Amino acid sequence: MKKARTFISALLLTAMSMSLLSCSSKDKSSVSGKELDSAVREEIHQNAAESDLLTGDKLENGEIKWLSDWDINPDGTGKNVPTDLAVFQERYGGTVKYYPCTYNERYDKLTEYISSDEGIDFFYGGNLDAFPRGAIKEMFVPVDDYIDFDSPLWEDVKDVNDQFIWNGKHYMAGVQATGDAVAVVYNRKTVAEAGLEDPAVLYENGEWTWDTFQEMLESYVDADNQKYGIDGWWFEFGLINTTGVPAISLENNKLVSNLSDPSMERVQNWIYDLYQKGCIAIGVGDFGWETKPAYVGEGKTLFYPIGLYDFYTEKSQWQAKYGEDAFFVPMPRDPEADEYYIPTGFESYMFVSGGSNPEGVAKYLDCKRFARLDEDTKAMADKQFMEDYGWTQEMIDMKDSMQELAEENPVIDISRGVSKDCGDLINDDLRLTARGVPWNETYDAMSAAVEKYLDKINTDPKSADIE
């Protein structure tokens, strides 16, 4: 089993490194940024000026310093000035100064900048690896002095933010629970030619469940004729998350393992069954051990679960991968769960220790909330999204439906935020049933180790090794 785990870790590291390199940070000075149409900018200006949701005058210091592997400003993906950034610019005279880094060096760079008093202001929390360990290590400061979660701007996300309190303080400013963390990408032409029902129709009719998902896979898969089932590195956790039971949760300021929950056993046994029936593409027949997203467009692979970020690029880029008839739906519903749970992200931001302008960050995040609450501004954002990325209204509607599911039942796994070692162990081992290892073997091998990680932090956080 240890060899299997090591092999999977190596594969995942290679896959993730390639993905992160392909979308790694670029110095914004080298990117030809797109600018908003003047009429659009004027409308944004008017909406922000006339709304009671945004308060206060223009900032004396409008610059906020952002460290990340991606730029908030226009970049090489084809996006325009984001609507929320335009609101920040127009309402408060704000700007975002981008400090680029690669994904893997984020924390090293953050540590360097904190030590040098550079005054980095904010850091992305949505990767869910910054909390609680970043709070424990005092890399981040509470946001409560700057964000009022009881205000009209923030009150509808107060409950989800209250899930992530450490020592009585909020360390993540969560703008929204997000439904785009993992979707089932497929090609409609491939589905139709196989004589199968369109998953979007099944979803609309309330019939998109584990059962219909598996039935489609079993009907389609024929490895001898290059017809493969599920590809990608996201499907295991995409399916696990549909139970509504995260691997690690935070309850009463204590980290809790849910590995022994019956739902975890049930979903792991189901994934093992999919493996036994040849429904998982990786390693089947001559498929090999590398993901092949282009097989979706070529009619060789049925399902490719992945984050919708893969569609947040110019149309030519995402169609080159998945074909002209590409579409997506949420992960299938667990028929035994009490609600329709999907993989849920958390668009959240951390205030960095020693930041030079936390007030400015708070105003920027207010603008992000405003862009979601103000109907006219949201409509403009959707229109811009369609123009930038070549989406159809049907795609926007499906994304909105996924967003509604996430907001109705936000269950967010923070296992990566415990420690790197604990996060890696959970990330690797919960995938093993998809590679032919029975769940009882995996559970017996990992559960005690996970409990030790959690006990150390729960009993003496400052002494815990959380690198």
Automatic annotation (TrEMBL):
Q: Any signal peptide, and if so, which residues?
A: 1-22
Q: Which domain of life is it from?
A: Bacteria
SUPFAM superfamilies associated with the record:
Periplasmic binding protein-like II
Q: Which InterPro entries match?
A: Bact_solute-bd_prot1
The entry's keywords: Signal
Q: What is this protein's record name?
A: ABC-type glycerol-3-phosphate transport system substrate-binding protein
Organism whose genome encodes this protein:
Ruminococcus flavefaciens
